[in-house]
Structure formats: structure tokens, C-alpha cells
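WARN  no MSA supplied for this record, continuing single-sequence
INFO  ligand: fe (ii) ion
INFO  echoing inputs
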Amino acid sequence: MTNYEIIAGLQKTLKNSRLGHSMGVACTAANLAMCHDKDLIDKAFRAGLLHDCAKYMKDDESIAFCKKHGIELSEYELKTPGLIHAKMGVYVAKNDYDEHDEQILSAIRWHTTGKPGMDMLEKLIFVADYIEPLRKILPNLNEIRAMAYKDLDQCIIMIYENTISYIKEKGDCFDPTTLEAYEYYKK
Ligand SMILES: [Fe+2]
Ligand SMILES: [Fe+2]
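INFO  complex generated
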């Protein structure tokens, strides 16, 4: 499928704001690739377009979708259905957008929590999702944006620090992957 066909498909399923965000992530990820790994420009754009391709269902619909298609959910994911669209995204990208590049599918899979030992494409999408131009303004966002083009791993640490203090403030519990990944990048 061409990038234009993917955009046309997303237009049919996603809200305008989500489509705008997806375009923002695609362009930002491609820009980051121009800076950090020129061989990944095309994959970064495509993974950015597709990363939220499953983010159009309500929570109960997402859980039903996963049951129907045999997508296993952790206890934490059942409590925080907002995160499930990453796993569902892999399924939707394969089946609705004919995307079978393992590296792109893995970047979609890990874009919400990140994970220890991410490869370059996974890092680009994780960071681009956080810093794209339409992102609502969060504390330290402009410092994080600047760091993304200087030191990607340092930028990832800053994103985790922000995320962890935000979750603590809200009094929510953590996805264990978030904490594991934070510890990993701090070392
Ligand atoms: Fe997402
Ligand atoms: Fe996103």
C-alpha cells in the first residue's frame, strides 16, 4: 500500500485530530531519521502514519476486538485500555493496511510504553509520538524536543521522567514496562 493509500484509509477511520497527530508523528519521525539514521526515513514516515491506526474504538470495543482476534492482554492492560491500541495496531496494520515489515510492526507495538533495548526505529516513533508539533503542551516539552535532535537516549530518559511524574500525580499505577525501560535507559 502506498503512503497516500494509508492516509486515505486513516481518513475513513480516525477523527480529524487523531489524523493530524498521525501526520505529525510521521513527519517528525522522518525528520528524526534524517538526523540519526538516514536509512530509516521511509520506514519512520510509514510507522508514524500507522502507529495509531487502531485508535478509533471505545475501551469495551477494544477489549472485545482483542478477545475476538486472540490478542492477549495483561492485567495492567485490562485496567488501562487506552494502551491496548498499540497491540491492536499491529493487527490492524497487517490486515487493513497490508503492512508486514517486522521492524515497522514492532515500532507500532512499542510506541506507548517503549521498552528496554529499543532499536532505532522503535526509538524514533516513541519519541516522535511525544514531541510532534500538534502535541498538547506538556512540562519541559520544548527542552525534550531540542534534545531529540541532540541525544536520542537522553531525550528518552526525559520523556520517561515526565511520564512517571505525571502518572504519580494522577495516582495511577504503572505499566511495569515503563519502569523497566526507564531504569534501562538511565544506566
Ligand atoms: Fe498511540
Ligand atoms: Fe500517537
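The chain has one domain: 3-137.
INFO  checksum written, moving to next record
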